[in-house]
Write a sequence for this structure.
C-alpha cells in the first residue's frame, strides 16, 4: 500500500492566492520530498525536508514536517498560472513511496 | 548530462506480447527504480536496484522483470503483456543514501490491447 496520501485531491485557486496541500504518511522516514508533475510530463523535484527538520523554504515554497503527526504541508505563496500541476509527496524510508497527489489549478 | 532517459516514449502492445522498456542515466547514480503511474493511484514502485548486479522488488513487481548489468542501464521487461499493465512508466535514479534527490525520466506510455 502507498505510504503517502495528499489532501486535498484537487485544489483550484485564483492567481496570486496561496495554495496549501497536505501529506500524511504511515511509517518512520529519513526524509520527505515534494515533487511537481505537469500534465503528461515526468516528475520534477521541488524540495526535500529531513526528518530532523521542521520547516524549510525555497523561493515561494514553504514545507513543514511534523513527525509526531506523520504529516507534512506544502505552501505555495503568490501562486501563478504556471504552478498548475499535480503535486506529490514522497517518503524515503527504505524505499521511496509516493502519495496519490494533489491536482492544483491556478486560474489567471 | 542527459539525466535519465527512457525509450520508447509510447508503445502499443497486444496481450501476450513481450517488450523491454529502456532506462539509462549518465549521473553515475547507484540507485535506480521503476514506477508505474495510473490515474488516481500516484506512483507505485515496481522494482529497484541499489547497484549493478543487485535488484529487488517494490510494491507491484508481478509481471515485470529487471536486471542491472551496468550502473547506467536498468531495463524493465514485460514477458507477457496484459491489459492491466496499461500505464505510464517512469524510471528514476539517485545517489545512494536517504537524503538524495531522485531524478525522473520523461516516462513511457504503454497501451496493452
Amino acid at each position: 500500500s502507498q505510504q503517502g496520501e495528499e489532501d486535498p485531491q484537487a485544489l483550484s485557486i485564483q492567481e496570486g492566492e496561496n495554495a496549501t496541500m497536505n501529506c500524511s504518511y504511515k511509517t518512520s522516514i529519513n526524509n520527505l520530498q515534494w515533487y511537481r508533475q505537469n500534465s503528461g510530463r515526468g516528475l520534477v523535484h521541488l524540495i526535500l525536508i529531513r526528518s530532523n527538520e521542521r520547516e524549510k523554504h525555497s523561493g515561494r515554497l514553504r514545507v513543514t514536517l511534523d513527525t509526531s503527526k506523520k504529516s507534512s504541508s506544502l505552501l505555495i505563496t503568490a501562486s501563478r498560472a504556471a504552478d498548475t500541476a499535480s503535486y506529490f509527496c514522497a517518503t524515503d524510508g527504505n524505499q521511496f513511496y509516493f502519495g496519490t497527489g494533489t491536482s492544483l489549478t491556478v486560474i489567471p | 548530462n542527459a539525466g535519465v532517459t527512457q525509450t520508447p516514449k509510447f508503445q502499443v502492445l497486444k496481450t501476450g506480447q513481450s517488450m523491454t522498456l529502456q532506462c539509462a542515466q549518465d549521473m553515475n547514480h547507484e540507485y535506480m527504480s521503476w514506477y508505474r503511474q495510473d490515474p488516481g493511484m500516484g506512483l507505485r514502485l515496481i522494482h529497484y536496484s541499489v547497484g549493478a548486479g543487485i535488484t529487488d522488488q517494490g510494491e507491484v513487481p508481478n509481471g515485470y522483470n529487471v536486471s542491472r548489468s551496468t550502473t547506467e542501464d536498468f531495463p524493465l521487461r514485460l514477458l507477457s503483456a496484459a491489459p492491466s499493465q496499461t500505464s505510464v512508466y517512469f524510471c528514476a535514479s539517485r545517489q545512494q543514501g536517504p537524503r538524495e534527490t531522485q531524478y525522473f525520466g520523461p516516462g513511457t506510455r504503454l497501451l496493452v490491447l
